[in-house]
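Figure 6 in text form: structure in, sequence out.
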């Protein structure tokens, strides 16, 4: 049960608390844009497209079977491209304020809605309807992953915002590559290492990358870049 409570706290209470804070400080627009960027790029566009190809394209399915490594890499980078393009468009053409706090709130909105959709809702439903044994450890691990994923989205959002502010496309490319690499590892590592070790390696990679982009983001703030 503790695992479910922890999952709900990280994937529902935390994003909701930041949303309330954004409302209170009248900075809710970047947060909402972050939510929309994820929903449009993934829920509306990328996931339905992949489902369509998986259902209707023989070539697509053959490619995934005959060239699994390339397939996994392309799949990972497709997430990076879809999400970072959505982030860039929202920040460049819709978001008015381009300061560090706006990037922070955008990132929490982006990562927060992902946490709600992929873990939070399931955890809440499980809490109130559970009829079988619940693997609390799995929920706790999922919550930890979502926490660092939110940190990653904050860092990537600020890097993309840096690209918008400085008008240097290389920062946008860096965000796409970082996103694509971490998502590619999700498919690549289990091909090499099976079982629990693969999970811990993936979690370790996520932690390292998340902390790295957050440290970089803080440095940008201290230097007055954003």
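Output sequence:
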């Amino acid at each position: 049960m503790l695992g479910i409570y922890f999952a709900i706290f990280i994937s529902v209470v935390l994003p909701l608390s930041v949303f309330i804070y954004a409302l209170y400080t009248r900075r809710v627009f970047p947060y909402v844009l972050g939510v929309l960027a994820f929903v449009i790029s993934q829920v509306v566009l990328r996931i339905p497209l992949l489902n369509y190809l998986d259902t209707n394209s023989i070539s697509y399915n053959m490619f995934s079977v005959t060239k699994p490594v390339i397939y996994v890499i392309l799949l990972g980078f497709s997430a990076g491209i879809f999400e970072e393009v959505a982030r860039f468009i929202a920040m460049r053409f819709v978001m008015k304020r381009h300061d560090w706090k706006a990037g922070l709130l955008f990132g929490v909105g982006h990562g927060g809605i992902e946490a709600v959709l992929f873990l939070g809702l399931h955890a809440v439903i499980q809490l109130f309807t559970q009829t079988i044994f619940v693997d609390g450890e799995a929920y706790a691990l999922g919550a930890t992953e979502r926490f660092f994923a939110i940190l990653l989205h904050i860092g990537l959002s600020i890097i993309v915002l840096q690209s918008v502010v400085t008008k240097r496309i290389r920062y946008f490319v860096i965000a796409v590559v970082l996103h694509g690499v971490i998502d590619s590892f999700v498919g690549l590592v289990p091909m090499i290492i099976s079982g629990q070790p693969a999970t811990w390696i993936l979690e370790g990679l996520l932690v390292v990358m998340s902390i790295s982009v957050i440290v970089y983001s803080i440095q940008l703030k201290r230097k007055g870049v954003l």
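Caption detail: The mean pLDDT is 95.
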